[in-house]
Amino acid sequence: MAKGIFLQPANIKNKMVRDHLERTIFQTVELNEILRFQPNIRSDLERFYVWGVIPGTKSKWDKIQIGDLVVFYSERKFYLLGQIVDKFHNKSLARYLWGEDQHGRTWEYVYLIDPDSLITINVDIEKVIKILNYSPGFVLQSALYHQNEKLLSLFTDRLMEDRTGKHDIITTVRREKISATIEKYKRDPSFSTTVKSNYGNKCAICGIPNEGAVVDAAHIKPVKEGGPDIEENGIALCKVHHNLFDAGLITIKDGKLITSPKMSHQLETHPVISEFKGKRVKLVKTSEKFLKWHQENIFKD
Ligand SMILES: [Zn+2]
């Protein structure tokens, strides 16, 4: 159980921060990749999210214990929460993952986050300021570490609530600009959780269960087209069927899987398609209205 919490500034308006998020938080780093630089990892996980701090923050990083929580902060809000499963000092891994800043420094005080623990949160700094008795204008400019039960429960109460939505950020980020994603989960962090749970955490087409985070909550009408974050505009799809759906190569019409004539023969005869073509797709709270929009605007007929 977590004893402490590491408050990590990571301003999403900063291009370098966004690049780092893209590299090691929005996608995992394989154990093998880390082992090339750091031979001993005190965790039996196969992949991790990775973050690090520059030497100036070492004294705060020193206090981190395995099992502690980390929360990422940007623009007066904490937006991500995860659990730290290891930490170590490794300059070459940091250089390999993130390069250097303009002063030649790198984020060599590294920590690993359990990918299954990462969730999106939306916690105002004001709540933290109140608990820690900081002055009202306080800005988190460099990392802080606290062992404070009230602070911990401010974030872990959220953890319990959001437990099932732990992959929200990962599934959404791949398709969209980071800024749009941040906007999106500010709007409705529960979209992904709700849609996936409507479908029993399985792909609506092939039924593959959501192990290894292979199932997404797909928007039928995309967010960038003004599609809302409501369950009627959502369907649970595995990565394969999600990509094919977004590419307009498949759609769902009259409750059945339809394939595009633009699809290659090779794909059409592949089991991911041939096994399900023309078969019933059981819809749960997904609205025909949005599917019709998809058929007319995305589907390549
Ligand atoms: Zn599928």
Automatic annotation (TrEMBL):
Highest taxon in the source lineage: Bacteria
CDD domains: HNHc
TM helices/strands, residue ranges: none
InterPro entries xref list: HNH_nuc
Domain HNH nuclease: residue ranges: 190-243
Protein name: HNH nuclease domain-containing protein
Originating organism: Persephonella atlantica
